[in-house]
Amino acid sequence: MSDRASDVAIVGGGLIGAWTAFFLARRGHSVTVIEKGLVGAQSSGVNFGNLRLQGRFPGQYPLSLRSQALWEDFEALIGEDCEFEQTGHLYLAYDEAEQAKLEGYASVSESYGLAIERVGPAELRRRWPWLGERAVAATFSARDATANPRIATPAVARAAARLGAVIRENTRVTAVDRAGDGFALTLADGTQLSCGALVNCAGAWALDIAERFGETAPVFPAGPPQFVTEPFPYAIGPSVQAIDGSVIFRQIPRGNIILAGYPRTAADPEANRAPVPPAKTLAAMRALARVAPILAHCHVIRVWSGIEAYLPDMIPVIGPSETAAGLFHAFGFCGHGFQIGPGVGLCLSEMIVDGATQTPLEPFSIRRFRQAATVSEKFRKEFD
Ligand SMILES: Cc1cc2nc3c(=O)[nH]c(=O)nc-3n(C[C@H](O)[C@H](O)[C@H](O)COP(=O)(O)OP(=O)(O)OC[C@H]3O[C@@H](n4cnc5c(N)ncnc54)[C@H](O)[C@@H]3O)c2cc1C
After folding, report:
1. pLDDT (tens digit, 9 = 90+) per residue, 242-256?
2. Is the CB of residue 19 less than 8 Å from the CB of residue 153?
């Protein structure tokens, strides 16, 4: 049985797929999102919710800033709230080497127009008195924000559906083939679906599609451990991150502290499992207590992680396929895809409809993996 026909089919109903569908539908294109489970139930729904601008890969700033403007406009665009809050983001350094690293991040951010405040130890304690005594320096970026990942992606998918996009949940794409100058997708129930353009934003599962067209990337599936504590009276304000990566935390207005620890743990996309070894809970709580001693005795009430695709240079693949005209990839977001998700969706829609996007995406081409990948120092340190 053949089912037609969308201008565009999108494999993967995560944040990237939902935003791409939204922008395509808004421009009057017929679009079908195919999601093997529920929309926003994988990485996009279980992440930390940080919309951090400080400390990003320099070549990502144009995309990242475009994306932040969309987050800031979320309610007007999507018609629903996603608990977006411009909390700001505080980066902490504990010695001179870390302070130099902070300064490097700050200068890059400033070169892209972000306002970064340098905060010395006395000012730190005055503004955030719950911090421990040890931090020697910090930078604060007021435009950084947070949102609730559990509600963001379903809201974007509902907005896309209101504009005419078809969202097919619990439907796995089992094969993708060339059909004329478009594509034929085979779904798990044997149905075929044809489309003109195809977007591969299948998260940690995206290689299945890329490899059908002779392309590959050295994807490593993993996730950072996440924890939530019992609630406390609201006091923290910004997202707080130790620049050595040992802990990042924020307090939601309901009072709970959400924290993420490191290193990340390998995940299993086939079994759909993202384990959190118990030792990581203890390590994260120790790191939290060093940064904010008033939280030393709080109780973790739930732990979880997610399945995210990482690449050795710690930057994603975004852009057209090198081997199949009409196929676009967007995967391997290396733990940073929530912030850039709206911008990626917008750029993909522009590439599909206009043939180009104003945002420079060259560093993210899948072409870079034609040769053996260089493994970045950041990648080496961030997994165990
Ligand atoms: C624990 C954790 C914390 C994180 N914290 C942050 C953070 O604070 N800030 C930040 O910016 N980023 C963060 N990230 C990263 C961010 O969550 C991801 O980069 C982003 O959600 C990726 O979105 P996606 O749409 O590409 O992937 P996904 O959300 O994984 O969506 C891909 C979808 O494709 C579907 N799919 C796969 N194969 C098929 C198929 N064959 N047929 C149909 N459907 C298919 C999957 O079911 C899935 O729903 C974090 C990630 C994790 C795991």
Report:
1. 999 999 999 999 999
2. no
CATH homologous superfamily of 89-142+225-305: D-Amino Acid Oxidase, subunit A, domain 2 (3.30.9.10)
Atom of ligand 1 nearest to the CA of 331: 26
Q: What's the gap in Å between 225 CA and the centre of ligand 1?
A: 15
Distance CA 322, CA 215 (A): 8
**Could you give the C-alpha distances from 274 to 14, 38, 277, 303, in angstroms and in order?**
17, 17, 10, 11
Note the pLDDT of residue 2.
46
Prior bond to 242 cis, omega within 30? Answer: no
Extents of the domains making up the chain: 3-64+149-218+312-374, 89-142+225-305
* Ligand 1 atom nearest 12 alpha carbon: 34
* Amino acid at residue number 339: Q
Q: Are 335 and 55 in contact (CB under 8 A)?
A: no
Whether 1 shows a pLDDT value over 50: the answer reads no
Write the DSSP symbol of residue 85: B
Which CATH superfamily is 3-64+149-218+312-374 part of? FAD/NAD(P)-binding domain (3.50.50.60)
Q: Is 291 in the pocket of ligand 1 (CB under 6 A)?
A: no
**Of the candidates 361, 328, 307, 308, the residue with the CA atom closest to the CA atom of residue 215:** 328
pLDDT tens figures, 319-332: 999 999 999 999 99
Mean pLDDT for all residues in the chain: 95
Output the residue whose Cα is nearest ligand 1's atom 14.
Answer: 335
The whole model's pTM is what? 0.97
The bridge status of strand 239-242 relative to strand 89-93 is parallel
User: Looking at the predicted structure, is the pLDDT value of residue 153 above 90?
Assistant: yes
Q: In a 3-state reduction of DSSP, which class is residue 268?
A: strand
